[in-house]
Structures are given as structure tokens and as C-alpha cells.
Amino acid sequence: MQRLIRSVVVLLSVVAATAVYSAGAGAATGSFGRSSSHVVFVQNDSVAGNQVVAYDRAPDGSLTQAGTYATGGHGGVLAGSVVDHTASQGALAYDRANNLLFAVNAGSNSVSVFAVHDDQLTLEQVIASGGVFPVSVTVSRNVVYVLNARNGGSLQGYRVLLGRLFALPGSTRLLGLDPAASPEFTTTPGQVLFSPDGRQLLVTTKANGSAIDVYAVDVVGYLSASPRVNADPGAVPFAATFDREGNLVVAEAGTNSLATFALASDGTIALLGRATTGQAATCWVAAARQFFYASNAGSASLSGFRDDHGGQLTPLGNTQTDPGTVDADVSSDGRFIYVQSGATGKVDAFAINPDGGLDPIGAVTVPGAVGGEGIVAL
Fold first, then answer.
1. By percentage, how much of the chain surpasses pLDDT 90?
2. Residue 15 domain flag
3. Residue 10, in any domain of the structure
4. pLDDT recorded at residue 9
């Protein structure tokens, strides 16, 4: 009964909110955009004015700039960061069901919502992030959560309706991390992401706790009052994704490793496998079918792994990139991987071979993107 009452309250609040769109957004378009493919979107996180740059992807995987779109907010820089200003994964997220793109504005404490029309974007909304310094955003089943990094970290929930976000009343969750811990770029939380079925929400805490927090998600989108805290001592879990069996795959910066875990329905995790990269500053991870690629910011490289079954990882070797390897994403057809190099503001493109090896295609320089993070490949 309590859940039903809350559902009705949320529905009424969302309907009422349709008349009160964000001041900086354009008029409602009445559509969520149209299906997009063969496009790569890159966020530059510029403190002078955050932008998303769109690139067309050719059949050979090469990129051609198609447009630049202001988010209506500003990027931000965590203290101590050099090539990774938000020190996070998931600063840009694509909602395939509604054909929307979400971008965090770390310096403005806001989130931008774009309708996607092939390689073109229409800014529909800029909405408060519900906390300070948003660094990561995730979406599942019309529910969106934003991770705010500063002041001990917090989460804010939203529902997607008519191509816009509406805050879920009472959905804020405080992570309770030490706000005075330093250096800031390694002690703020790194990523928020849904489990494949959308029933759990995970947060990596990096060096501020070195844990993976797991919240239960109810049918409306509300989180459990507190998370299951899974300690990963000394590992510094930074970024994560999932394999084809639903196992959690985590880039661990403290040990420069990739680790796999079984995720139980009660939020506990159990180690399945761990493999070191032999590189420096292993912080990001991208999935391509049974292959995984970890970004090593300190070594300017991608480390490849194969996960055939049960979370057991087989190293595939390292591939050089431009300096400051950070966030990466794989095209929806699994043929190409695109990785941001924070030291140069470039995006490096690679073709993924059937055996998981990588062949370089070339690079593009993203305007104003030195230190920037956030990439989506369609």
C-alpha cells in the first residue's frame, strides 16, 4: 500500500511538473528525436561552456565532425586532476528507448537533456543535479540517476516523461563519504550505473572507502534507504560495466587491474576473477561482446581482455593511444572502440578484430576537450 501511494504521488507530481520546464530549455518538440546510428558524441567539459561534439562514423570507423552543441552549463575540474577533470565514467549517457542524450555539467550542478536526430542534437532541458559537481549519469526503464561528487557524494533520481526529466521527490541519497579527503580527483566517487535488469544501482567510491555500493531499485525508481557496501580494500574501484552473463566488471585503479564479480540479488558481490594490466592508472573500462578494454591514463594505452565464461579474464595485450587515456565507448555493432585522450583532447579510433585485437584507424581533435570526459558511440 505504501508503494502504491508513493507511485500515485510521483505520477501526480510529474504531471503537474509538465507545465514548469527549466528556464534555459527550448520549447517542447513533441517527439524524442529519431533513431540514430553510426554517430559518436563527445563531451568536452569546458569550464568556459560545456559542449557536446557530434561525429559521423564512416564504414571504416573514421570520424568526421558533424556539429557542436552547447549544453547550457559549464564543465568543472576536480582538484589534482590533469587528464581527467571529472575523474569519472559515464559523464554522457544515451537513453536508447527515448532517443535522448544526457550530459552532466559539473561546474553548473546541472544535467542537460538533448533529443537526438541522427547526428544532430536539440537541447530540450537543463535541470538541477540535486547536488554539487555531477560527474556521472545512468538510465534504465525511464529512470535516471545522477551521481554528484562533492560534499561527500550524493545521488538524485528522475523519471523520463515526454522527452524530459522530472525529479523524483525524496529520491536523494547521501553517500556519506569524507568530504575533506584528498586528493579530490581520487577520493570522489567515480560512476553510477544500473544493473542490466534495472533492479539495482551501483556506485564506485574510488579511494574514499574503496567500495562498491549497491542499492535496490523499486518499480517506481526509488532506491533502498541505504546501500549494501561491498568493500574492495586497496583496489580503488573506479569504473564498471557488465559482461554478457550479467557479471560486474570493474576497473581497479589501486592495483591496475580488471576484476569480475558475481552480483547477487541482495546486493552482495563475489570475486570471480582478477587480471592485472601491467600499466599505470587503470581507471576506465568498455565492453565489446566478450571483450573488455581498460583505459590506462598513466601509460597511454588500452589493455584488452577476453571473458569467455564465468568472469574468467584472459589478457590480450596492450595497445598504445595518445597521451592521457580516459573514457571510452564501443559502437553499437561492436566493431569499433573510441577512446578519449585527456592530455591532448583527442579521440582515438580502433577497429576491433574477431580475436579482440585492435587496429588503429586515426584520431580527431575535439574542440576544447583537453581533460574532458564523456563519450557515447552509437
1. 90
2. no
3. no
4. 42
What radius of gyration, in Å, describes the C-alpha atoms of the chain?
19
Task: Extract the C-alpha cell encoding 191.
Answer: 560512476
Would you say 313 and 260 are in contact if contact means Cβ atoms under 8 Å apart?
yes
Domain count of the fold of the chain = 1
Domain hosting 55: range is: 28-377
pLDDT > 90? residue 367: yes
Of all helices (H) and strands (E), which one includes residue 185?
helix 184-187
* Three-state secondary-structure class, residue 9: helix
Name the phi and psi angles at 179, rounded to 5: -70, -15
The CA-to-CA distance between both ends of the chain, in Å, stands at 41
Tell me how far apart the alpha carbons of residues 248 and 270 are, in angstroms, rounded to a whole number.
10
Element (H, E) at 211: strand 211-216
* Closest C-alpha to 276, from 314, 311, 321: 314
- CA-to-CA distance for 344 and 210, rounded, in angstroms? 29
Residue 308 CB-density burial (10 A; 0-12 exposed, 13-18 middle, 19+ buried): exposed
Q: Which of 368, 282, 376, 356 is nearest to 70 (CA)?
A: 368
| Strands, E assignment, 291-357 | 291-296, 301-307, 313-320, 325-330, 336-341, 346-352
pLDDT at 200 over 90: yes
C-alpha cell at 220: 517506481
**What percent of the chain has pLDDT above 70?**
90
Q: What is the CATH number of the domain that holds 163?
A: 2.130.10.10
**What is the C-alpha to C-alpha distance for residues 329 and 340, in angstroms, rounded to an integer?**
9
Residue 198, domain member (yes or no): yes
pLDDT tens digits for 9-48?
455 444 444 333 343 343 333 345 555 689 999 999 999 9
The number of residues in the chain equals: 378
Please tell me the pTM assigned to this model: 0.92
53 within domain boundaries: yes
* Alpha carbon distance 250, 258 (integer Å): 6
Instruction: Note the Cα 132 to chain centre separation in Å.
Output: 17
Contact 154, 173 (CB under 8 A): yes
- State pLDDT tens for residues 95-114: 999 999 999 999 999 999 99
